[in-house]
Amino acid sequence: MRLRSVLALAIAVASSACALAPRELNLTPIWFHRLDDDGRLLEWDAAWPLLHYERTPAGGDDLRIRPLWRRVTEPDVEDAVEHQFLWPFGRVRKYPDETVARLWPLWSWRSRPNEEGTRDVDWYALFPFLWGGDSADDREDYFAFLPFYADIPDFLTYDRFQTFLFPLWVGLDKGGHSHDLFFWPLVGTSHCAEAGHRWFRVLPFYGLDVEPGRHDRRSFLWPFFSWSTENEDGDSGPVRSFLFWPFFGWRTGPSVSGWTALWPLFAYTKKQDHFETVTVLWPFFKYHRDRTGDDLTQWWLWPFVGRVTSKDQRAWTFAWPIVWWREYDDPDVYVDQQWIVPFFARIVQQAKAGDREDHVKLWPLFHHTQRRDRNGGHVGGEWSALSIWPWRDGNATGFQEAWGWLFELVRGVRRGIDDRAVDVLGRVFTRRERKGATTASVPFLGSYEQDRTGARTLRLFQFLPIPLGGGDDAAAGGDDARAEPKR
Predict the structure, then answer these.
(1) How do the domains of the chain map onto residue ranges?
(2) Which of 287, 310, 379, 407 is the 20 to 30 Å CA partner of 104?
(3) Does the reported pTM lie above 0.85?
């Protein structure tokens, strides 16, 4: 609390001092501030790069002690407040009804309303060793201290996962089936409540999984011998299979046929009017055609070339995993991507509502991202050189803000359709155009101001004003003369 009070006082003092000082005062690395045309504080730095503050486009506050701590308020997102600590390791994000916190890998905590509207809490410490959770309606109450004890719902696809002195005993529940495993995964038995289901194994000697009327699966000296009857209740009839691993195996049924030899090198499977799969010298060649759903066709000659097509996607790969080309249609967005890993990436996202984002990266030298609204207006984005962080969007949140000062030679930001800025080597040169007004400066030597009427002022050594005229023509032109042209 004392630290927050000191910082709040510093902001207040800076704001009052700025009211008497030039709109842009650049004494980097000692001090920097920038005011809006109406005198409101936009940005300040102290002891650059340690302390930084800026007003966000949504009207929130972004305060940083780089790289240790950052606090961001988001009035446009349920009045959210986020704290970041030595990013990406620590984070606390608070909404009116939800709190998410982490200090990776030591601690994580999430408290939020569940589907019924009651409080639900999940946490872990030193994951995966100590973790648990509970809900106010008692629908969820679990605790795990691995490998000694665990009782966890909805874990690893199971309705319930339990263990005691793992791997000595493991209990699994899923869809009415209950299994007990001893010396996991070697010995197992079941006490199922559905349809006389029997499940038993003593690996590698013998195993069975029998659900009358649905399937019958057995193994002997696993994995060498296994056989099964599947789909006993299916409309297409039962499918029988046998495998003498890895030498040969087969699968037969009224509409299904297949075989494998020297698994996984050679295989063929076909289901009439559904799919067909061919594998030759896996992983070097595979062909798969699925005529249901998205009408998927996939083939590859690994690692040289691969191809995927369906109703909503088209993709190529070359010299896997180096070169990728992919385009696909989601219900809300069209995406077009090209990758030469890790050196080049181009990503275009065109929303069905009309918004568009274009991203280009030449790693580690440069990246450029721009966002446009449905009318083509340039509403956001940023670019930088250098650009060493390989990820973007959510995977990049907080990284530039905490660490960008270490490697960025020059950076540009567009916070809105009428708000763009560029910074060189921190604040060695800085410029921002916002709502028809412009400020620019270099440390100690001078600054430049142009207000919304077009009146220009040069300040030598930051304080000595030299009027440069202007203002009458711009004032006569009004806002229309300063509007960004439509593209």
Answers:
(1) 197-270
(2) 407
(3) no
